[in-house]
Amino acid sequence: MREISLRAFNLLVGCPREREKAARSEVRYFVGDLLADTDLVISFIDISGLITCWTSLDPFYVVHKLREFALENPYQFRFSTRFTPLEFCVESNLDVISKTARGLLDKISENETFRVTVRRRQTELENMEVVKAVAEEIPRTVNLEMPDKTIWIEIVGKMTGMSVLDERTDILSIASLRNEVS
């Protein structure tokens, strides 16, 4: 497997702790084989329960296609349990994160509401300082309960992945999907 720098990831995959190798095999099958991404790169990071991927496909397309497959075969996903598409991967620096948020503004129309969700690992940045810095860059109405869009921020040590997404459709959680199917 080729190793890549953390900067290159555009898909974050969650798995049970200490099951990263099994999750990597599943991701290789689902994305590499089923979706035919011959350029897929999967990397281990020093955070148990998480692997990073770089797909040459649109990461939102990957998540949506995996959702279709999982609806028919939810128990095929034993180890790769959460897929989050990321549009940008930047340095975990508050100024860089807030400047990147400005670049996401065009994905939230003037009549749409938004919220900022931060998931952080191995960082000294605090959730609320990131939320505040990003929200200040977005001149739209905040809705914490049912936003039209979510600015999703995954801080993974020295790197941060960011996307504007609809939490209901753009993130694939196998556990939630199994509950929907049951």
Explain this structure.
It contains 6 helices and 10 strands; from the N terminus they run βαββαββαβαβββαβα. It has helices spanning 20-34, 59-72, 94-104, 127-135, 167-170, 174-181; strands at 11-14, 41-44, 50-54, 82-85, 88-91, 113-121, 141-142, 149-156, 159-165, 172-173. A hairpin with a 5-residue loop joins β2 and β3 (50-54). The longest helix is centred in the N-terminal third of the chain and has 15 residues, at 20-34. Residues 1-6 have low confidence and may be disordered.
What is this structure, in a nutshell?
By secondary structure, the chain is α+β, with helices and mostly antiparallel strands.
Gap from first CA to last CA? 37 Å
Return Rg in Å: 16 Å
Mean pLDDT value: 93
Order of neighbouring strands in the sheet with most strands: 2-3-1-4-10
Strand content is 25-35%
* Structural class estimated from helices and strands: alpha+beta
Q: Spans with pLDDT under 50 lasting ≥5 residues?
A: 1-6
DSSP summary, beta strand count: 10
Number of helices: 6
CATH topology of the largest domain: Alpha-Beta Plaits
**CATH classification class of the largest domain:** Alpha Beta
Major sheet, described briefly? 5 strands, antiparallel
CATH 2nd-level architecture of the largest domain: 2-Layer Sandwich
Shape: globular
Helix content: 25-40%
The topology string of helices and strands comes to EHEEHEEHEHEEEHEH
The structural domain count equals 2
Task: Spell out the key features of this protein.
single chain, alpha+beta, Alpha-Beta Plaits, VC0802-like, 2 domains, five-stranded antiparallel beta sheet, five-stranded mixed beta sheet, about 25% strand, disordered N terminus
